[in-house]
Amino acid sequence: MTVRLAARDLTFRYDASTALLEHWSAEFHAGEVVAVTGPSGRGKSTLLYLLGLMLRPASGQVLLDGHAMQARRDHERAAARATQFGFVFQDAALDPSRTVLDNILETTLYRGERRRDRVSRAEGLIEQMGVGLRRDAKPGQVSGGQAQRIALCRALIGNPRVLLADEPTGNLDPASSDVVVEAMHDQASRGAAVVVVTHDPVLVARCDRKLEL
Ligand SMILES: Nc1ncnc2c1ncn2[C@@H]1O[C@H](COP(=O)(O)OP(=O)(O)OP(=O)(O)O)[C@@H](O)[C@H]1O
């Protein structure tokens, strides 16, 4: 199996306090959906930020397709994030001043694709996720569950090689959760490594593997 993303010997602390992660290693394969579980406050979201190149560890490496990303400069890490990663934040983190459609399109702005093509892909995703919204709705007008699925659309539209999702089914009923799980497996079947932080046992059971933090 191809190792898409690897953590090697990661140590991380926010301040002088005890380390949240200490010499932590794991591999995430192309085609695989991995659940990360563990008690609240253990550092699961932090791990996703490290894997997603938003934080730098005190020591250790994150490797994307075998390339060490730690020593790269900020703009190179940002470029990798924009082109290779999709991220679903725990609170969806939609921009309230822009429409749902523009929130989803945000990550595709610099890809040199025609707007018409990007819009039709976004609309396909909105439909697939069963969000049931006018595309000119603003995030203030959507429910928590709709916001989560919109955030997933935004993460998927760039066809990421790595999809990192923090509690993506936290606000969802079982039918909507199902759609989200299917979408994550679809992305894995396109060759992505998918890492999902969750407390939801139903979601864990539908992942290929579980890592306990
Ligand atoms: N920016 C920050 N600065 C300082 N401490 C932080 C920061 N972000 C998180 N922490 C602390 O780090 C610890 C781990 O937080 P994190 O959100 O990674 O845990 P988690 O396992 O995802 O928790 P939950 O399951 O409740 O979402 C917590 O004690 C939290 O208070």
TrEMBL record:
The name this protein goes by in its record: ABC transporter
KW Hydrolase (keyword) present: no
Superkingdom assignment: Bacteria
Family indicated by similarity: Belongs to the ABC transporter superfamily.
Key words of the record: ATP-binding, Nucleotide-binding
SUPFAM superfamilies, alphabetized: P-loop containing nucleoside triphosphate hydrolases (SSF52540)
GO cellular component labels: plasma membrane
Domain ABC transporter: 5-213
Annotated GO MF terms: ATP binding; ATP hydrolysis activity; transmembrane transporter activity
PANTHER family linked to this entry: IMPORT ATP-BINDING PROTEIN (PTHR24220), LIPOPROTEIN-RELEASING SYSTEM ATP-BINDING PROTEIN LOLD (PTHR24220:SF689)
